[in-house]
Amino acid sequence: MNDAATVAPAARPASPASRLPSLTGLRWVAALLVFGFHVATMGVIAEPGQKAVVDWAFALGLSGVQFFFILSGFVLVWSARPTDTRLAFWRRRVAKIWPSHVVLWVAALAVAAWFADPVDRFVAVENLFLLQAWDPRPGHFYSINTVSWSLSCEFFFYLCLPLALPLIRRARPWALWAVVVAVPLLILALWPAQALVPEESRWWFTQVFPPVRSLEFWMGVAAAELMRRGRWRGPGLPLASLLFVATWVVAAQWVRAELWAALLSVAYILVIAAAADADVRGRRSPWRSRPMVWLGEVSFAFYLVHVLVMITVLRLTGDWGVGFTGWWGPAVVLGFLLFNLALAGLLHRLVETPMMRLLTPRRPARTPRDGDGAGKDSGGPGAAPGDRGSAVPRPRAAGPQDDHRPTYADSR
Predict the structure, then answer these.
(1) Which residue windows are coiled coil (predicted)?
(2) Considering the domain boundaries, does residue 371 fall inside one?
(3) Pairs from 367-376 (Cβ < 8 Å, separation ≥ 24)
């Protein structure tokens, strides 16, 4: 089949696979974009020429969060099972995100105490229970471990998805396509719509407010349901990747700020769907190599630790807001990357993984059906009409894989 073609025809819906390792690998790409964005905004590199390169390369790195949100919706719908209860779903999500968040919450408070930074008790409690994204007041939605605002958004998405999933399963393909097409347009509409919000709350409204940020999540949800039914149409992974790179370069260089988020949402969903299709069909994908899968598995932990570590080190060395000259700048960035990866690996191994095992309810084993073309380990949602006997190939094994239930964290 031509690489630009996509998944199986509508008459032969695809049986989703339980594992999509390429999407795990892509989580690392999203985390790296956010890391680069923070390197640029913190001014770690002081050398003008080097700083200009970093600023250009990661000017849109904040959209890594957008990538995570879209990916989260896609994977959660793809991996959903009809035997899941709402309570079991919510319990798994809490088990995935909250323990690691609590560890970083305690660490951030310890750092604040070390530097004698004042901490509002209400803000701390609000952050602990991941309610901060609902509070538009400065110093509230970005508080304690500042990156945890996105987890606050994810919790809202998780609350909504099990309630909406029965409607999603019954939705007609045209309605799902309408969601995919409408989201970039609604993102564009946010810019004139923010005029209705007080000026001091406009950043919060467009960048943090959970119902607004859920647009990207629902885009991923709709795309996953279309692919689950074999109705998705989009480019293959090589072309989708090329389109993403081209979109990134054009958006960073020439596109106004109010337009690039809409453009990148399209580029992201094309790459995510194409990578998932490559896994299902057993086609080549650079994102499911062992190193990429491991990096994706620790990406949530990496995301949680990286800002707190960088700010703390820069404050301790006296380089906060100053940056490093010469080749010290790139060397420090590389050091931050490796040190954060090491901490992320420990957090993933010592907190995230054991707490998931301890707190997550076990799913009942799925009994294979005669003629089920997806195989006994498909682990996907209940078969749609026409699934029986589907000839969609299973993905090739690709080394260590997690359960692929993401968060910004997770999809991160």
Answers:
(1) none
(2) no
(3) 372/15, 373/15, 374/15, 374/16, 374/17
Tell whether 398 is covered by a domain: no
Residues present in the chain in total: 412
Q: Coil, strand, or helix at residue 45?
A: strand
CB 72 within 8 A of CB 220: yes
- Whole-angstrom distance, CA of residue 388 vs CA of residue 371: 6
Determine the 3-state secondary structure of 129 from DSSP: coil
Domain holding 290, by residue range, is 21-359
Q: Identify the residue whose tokens are 């949800």.
A: 221
What whole-number distance in Å separates Cα of residue 33 and Cα of residue 31?
5
- Say if 326 falls within a structural domain: yes
What is the DSSP code (8-state) at residue 324?
B
Q: What is the pLDDT of residues 114-127, one digit of tens each?
A: 999 999 999 999 99
Residue 1 in domain: no
Number of domains in the chain: 1
Task: State the pLDDT at residue 206.
Answer: 94
Nearest to 233 by CA among 287, 270, 285, 284: 270
